[in-house]
């Protein structure tokens, strides 16, 4: 499997992600459920702290990827949802993700969206991930 990422001429320069991600001969794809800032007990962590919640989302996403023998390098699409009106929070979330162990996932096709609400009370961030896997499970 080969994953290539590109930014076509004539499109704006991106802050780290690529406009297009192409997977050659991908036999298997993993679609992760939206990864939320929940601890193992099912409770929202870091109430009111969007960056603390990002850290939990990163940890949960890494765990979910590992369950299918994938790494952040296998990620081909991300959508980040942030419940905050302040533009600064969106940028802070993006920078925190780029500084995290999941950073390679955000060199691919990525979208960052401000939303009015998410599924759990107090939840400020959620991450939707698609990963291309090798043809055979290990």
UniProtKB/TrEMBL annotation:
This is Enamine deaminase RidA (YjgF/YER057c/UK114 family). SUPFAM superfamilies: YjgF-like. InterPro entries: RutC-like_sf (IPR035959), YjgF/YER057c/UK114 (IPR006175). It comes from Asanoa siamensis. Gene3D superfamilies: RutC-like. The lineage of its organism: Bacteria, Bacillati, Actinomycetota, Actinomycetes, Micromonosporales.
